[in-house]
């Protein structure tokens, strides 16, 4: 039996409820049956709530009567126990709310205790293949225990939900509020559209193509413009590198200067100012080499508890994630892709995964979605696939300063190609201003 409870506080709360008129209404949102540890106290609380729902007083006389009617009076130890409560809890009348807060604290600790016991049992079971994933499933059940999700709809209900969603999106769009993530590259955003909650977007490219820069622009845009929390699982670069790249993009201090600590002509002042200005950006970085998919789930749950909700999850990059339950690498990547797709729905936010392209894509031609390395399942699962393709000069094969962003798949919009300017010296891209943009004042 758990020792995480206080019989005295439980008695105090019940005494206050049965003494002060309308007291239940002041704590009803914070008090439930599970807040009580003793079964007899749960029975008394249920009698109080039943009387309240019937618009009847819930003083000790009516509570005793209700317990007799429902044949629960013997469960609490007889009517004498109600008198015992009042004899042992004289000060409770004035401390209902702080006592309720204490009961909630005990409740939370009992829940964690149960989770720990469940994980301990899993740890002892050597027949479980992926013990981390099994433990994470217990945590998942705890997080979602109070969120019974409706999954069955008549078409009338489906139409109502669809209409409500449309109105919410229109209102958010009109008010320039968050509806999903964008790249802060107008031509790319106009082609792709908004990468919305529940979408799984893949950004592919060869090493050095700028895929991490695109993801970083999403992170900054989401955290800075919309003030939505971003989880970055950085399996490739360390947290210092990621942070310095963000500072470079935000201040336009060349990344090489920051990396080499070569700051002059006011750069140091700008760097310190940026640290002070942007320290509260809701970007959470998990620096872990070869994380498992179970660990990524754990990171996401931790970030969601910390920030209440997530605006975006970024994985850099997909082929570095591991799933120990799969022995074949093709099956492993396929399983990870499906899990990331499911995570987008579970956490109600876009999941953006970076992915490497195979070497065939280096032969001078535009890459295709089928060039994604190791698994065709990624191509199947993704809602959007964007490929970063640096353009080289035809005469010397050196970088031209332009990158093509190829929208190879877009389940909810158009496909096509947009050219952007490389500003990789400051870890960002910029839109190319066309003559038409200049006439209408567009571009960046």
Automatic annotation (TrEMBL):
Gene3D superfamilies, A to Z: DNAb Helicase, Chain A (1.10.860.10), P-loop containing nucleotide triphosphate hydrolases (3.40.50.300)
Class of the enzyme per the UniProt entry, highest EC level: isomerase
Enzyme Commission number: 5.6.2.3
Transmembrane residue ranges: none
Domain SF4 helicase positions: 174-436
Matches recorded under InterPro entries: AAA+_ATPase (IPR003593), DNA_heli_DnaB-like_N_sf (IPR036185), DNA_helicase_DnaB-like_C (IPR007694), DNA_helicase_DnaB-like_N (IPR007693), DNA_helicase_N/primase_C (IPR016136), P-loop_NTPase (IPR027417)
Keyword presence, DNA-binding: yes
Family, similarity comment: Belongs to the helicase family. DnaB subfamily.
The protein, known as: DNA 5'-3' helicase
Native organism: Acinetobacter entericus
Lineage: Bacteria, Pseudomonadati, Pseudomonadota, Gammaproteobacteria, Moraxellales
